[in-house]
Amino acid sequence: MSGATAAPGYALERRGTTRDLGDYVVGAGFAAGTPAFALADGSLHLATGEAWPRVEAHDGGLLAFASAGRFFVTGGEDGRLARVTPEGEATELARLGRGWVEHVATHADDRGRVVVAAGMGKAVHVVDGEGRALKTLEHPSSVGGVCFDARGKRIAVAHYNGASLWFVAAKTDSPRRLEWKGSHIGIALSPDGDCVVTAMQENALHGWRLSEDAHMRMSGYPSKTRSMSFTRNGKWLATSGAESVVLWPFFGGGPTGKAPTELAGGDNVLCTQVAAHTQTDMVAAGFSDGMVVLADIGSSRILPVAPPGRRPVSALAWSADGARLVFGTEDGFAAVVDFGRRD
Amino acid sequence: MAEAQTNETVPVTVLTGYLGAGKTTLLNRILSENHGRKYAVVINEFGELGVDNDLVVDTDEEVFEMNNGCVCCTVRGDLIRILGGLLRRRGRFDGIIIETTGLANPAPVAQTFFVDEDVKAKTRLDAIVTVVDAKHLPQRLADSHEAADQIAFADVIVLNKTDLVTPDELAAVEARIREINRFATIHRAERGGVPIAELLDRGAFDLDRVLAARPDFLEDDSHEHNEDVSSMSFEVERPLDPEKFNAWISGLLATKGQDLLRTKGILAYANEDRRFAFQAVHMIADGGFIGPWKDGDPRRSRIVFIGRDLNRPQLRRGFESCQAT
Ligand SMILES: [Zn+2]
Ligand SMILES: [Zn+2]
């Protein structure tokens, strides 16, 4: 147990529950209100009770993690998709073949129906919540990122020389191809589904506004953007990869030709993870020195959450109600911060 | 390339060579012999390996061009992803071996280690090891570009199947290798039987070997137009002016980069106690200070070029003109 070292003023001190899990935190999130941390060693740790239960999800490394609302989905070096319930039951969701499952995205509808998209090599395998194969989407080159739109109707996939947009329910599979030369290593869709944004190998973002068939170019990063998150109303895109939280305005004609807003800037410390709040115009951000902050976009006020002095923050997520924040670091520090708890 | 990089980074060995040269046999030996070190291996043909190892990763070589519009500026996208995944759990292995397909051009692999910031921060290219078949090499060199490129890129060459040729043929093939690359270490072998320690964790890419290479004092400066790969080195006595060197080398790489397969240098800058290490693959370059010059060692700058159509007098004059006045 650690975390007692937090200096006064950090939310972690008063509102945090922490553990040292001992390995790289690949992802963190909530299912049915239970927080969990997925580690690179193949295990999932459920943040319940005094001794957080450890669940073995993969034989070999774990590469990808997502919450599907009522359970968690992970992808591993063993070529499998695993499903882990908040009660700690792990089952094989699908066996996709030999190769690494490097990307997992999920969508759960109001009735709890789940669709999972898993990137392995050049393919994205789409399965339902019981692991039944729905379809396999092939791409011209390896998949660099996968995401669903807010309604779960479309899947956006980043790859070399652009991105592909697929309809989940389409009878015949032909994607809308979005072209831009270079290697695209991450992807995000705006909440209204009109803007596709990819992160590129060359420390820049590229975007397509679908309704206008227009390109957007967002550059100036000192390193690669690994994490992108639209605010709930789609006004801002929060991004990692700079020495501050870089927020691009997706209103008033932006982001093209507009300067981004930068929050929580410092020297020589890169922002590594961002997560927009689920209810308000706030964004949580993790940095390469382990620091975590909460930034209010409107007022530019910064609430310190966790102090520096650790390895880079590698995972960050909000609970659906926006009351709790989870984060993890490259060396296995894991924390649940409860902003709703009364002191 | 910074000093801080030494122990933090994971050594990577690139294993190249034609199908049938003995690459797979060598890889199997590395994985099965009890040498006390554990390696993660990135390969292209899963079925070839007889060894069961949970650290073997199968990949398809995916080469992409960088956004500068130049055909020689290419990197391996699959490696960037795979190394990123492996390095999250670096405690599992002591080093990484990357096997390339028989016909692969080694440049994209090598360039990946200069271009990608994450790969650069967490790994170091220890050596490029090329396995060649003593009997078939002359034919390979005659019918493809890649055979010469693989030798040109090598820090270490395993000259395999020496039992299948006569002593005269062996001497001839070794001389042919030396024409292409005078700076690589050559190990003769029969069935890939080279001590593993001679191949891995050599620090061959750390450029110290450049200092050991004999400069071309005695060779004449006649220039012939030549598509064959050759290698040459130059040495200057007076310290270099960093600005002059940067201006010269950037201009050279920009104009001649496609022909320059590898460039390596250890440089003595004026008013600087540390050695500056420089290296490039085609036009993609990297440089940084490494340890200080040893007391008593002459502070001479040396540079090595391996490539096609090298213009010896022009390169010599260019390097000499970088000396501080
Ligand atoms: Zn080039
Ligand atoms: Zn010429």
Automatic annotation (TrEMBL), chain A:
Membrane spanning stretches: none
SMART domains: WD40
Keyword terms, alphabetized: Repeat, WD repeat
Protein name: Anaphase-promoting complex subunit 4 WD40 domain-containing protein
Organism this protein belongs to: Acidisphaera rubrifaciens HS-AP3
Lineage: Bacteria, Pseudomonadati, Pseudomonadota, Alphaproteobacteria, Acetobacterales
Automatic annotation (TrEMBL), chain B:
Keywords associated with the record: Chaperone, Hydrolase, Nucleotide-binding
The keyword Transport is assigned to this record: no
Coiled coil feature spans: none
GO molecular function: hydrolase activity; nucleotide binding
Positions of the CobW C-terminal domain: 229-323
Catalytic activity: GTP + H2O = GDP + phosphate + H(+)
A Pfam family the protein falls into: CobW_C
Role noted for this protein: Zinc chaperone that directly transfers zinc cofactor to target proteins, thereby activating them. Zinc is transferred from the CXCC motif in the GTPase domain to the zinc binding site in target proteins in a process requiring GTP hydrolysis.
Family per record: Belongs to the SIMIBI class G3E GTPase family. ZNG1 subfamily.
The protein, known as: Cobalamin synthesis protein CobW
Natural source organism: Acidisphaera rubrifaciens HS-AP3
